[in-house]
Amino acid sequence: MxxxxxSSAVLIVVMIISSLASTVVLSNLxxxxxxxxxxxxxxxxxxxxxxxxxxxxxVQQTINQTINDINNNNSGANNQTNDSEIQNSNTxxxxxxxxxxxxxxxxxxxxxxxxxxxxxxxxxxxxxLMIPGFxxxxxxxxxxxxxxxxxxTVVIFDNRGIGETTSGTKxxxxxxxxxxxxxxxxxxxxxxxxxxxxxxLGGMIxxxxxxxxxxxxxxxxxxxxxxxxxxxxxxQLSPIDLQKMQTGTANKTLxxxxxxxxxxxxxxxxQINRTFVFPQVAQENLLKYGEALSHWEGTxxxxxxxxxxVLVVTGTEDITSPPINSLKIxxxxxxxxxxxxHDGGHGVMQQYxxxxxxxxxxxxxIT
Length: 367
Hints:
alpha/beta, Rossmann fold, 15 helices, globular
């Protein structure tokens, strides 16, 4: 069964994090959490009862089945949660589990155009390419890789001028980042359409990839991203803090504040100190990325032509790419899924890896 993908429908699912293994608890809350409507403005104006009457039967059946599948996979979770239970779920995985899939996996380099791209490939199953965010290196994806590798051949890499990938001689631009990504797919010999996950800046690159090379895309997952342009909301940081983030001069405290809600940081500082990887990137290259973004016109006015299954994920407390940016993306892409994760920040994948993986696997399996 697949979800009907109309030109105007937007599926919005708000996920609640529970206490056991970040289980998605929806079975008793479906009428409060799931909406399918013709526009985001209507979802605000209409009553819940009217919204529910507009849900297409096939979509509703698929949602019910999805919820049952998730809950069955997490048997033993209690559907009744309280504030303390939710708070207790806001923890990183144990440090001995973090990045274990990469412990003995060395990066490789492959020539793509004018650069040598550093990458790692591991796991089994259909391939999924993960495009990293601004200043993000391969080692920063976190424990989500452990779950992904069970069902997918995962390809992670460093963008141009980041981590172990060389800077090359060509001008940094969004179109060049797309060319780099297409070149990597081709040189790796991936012939069939591939699932692509883009985080933040990586989500912007993924959007351009889907628009310019749709034949390369199977599914598209956009996390904490934006379609750019004048109507997108910029990071909710002070000008000074934003400048520090963009130039690589931010200290650890500011960097974490840009990624995670402050309460969550306080509750998980011990695990952060033991497991989180902070990037080390040349300031010159970060400035080049900032310049590239300043010249990017965005995709907002072109996204209606995307005809691939798209999952859009945002954290409700993201201050680096505020949730409204993800709502704009989902509203413009026909049939897109929009997931808002309660208390999630820009680093929502690192906060709730098990839940994120459950959501994405469900999306990939039924679209």
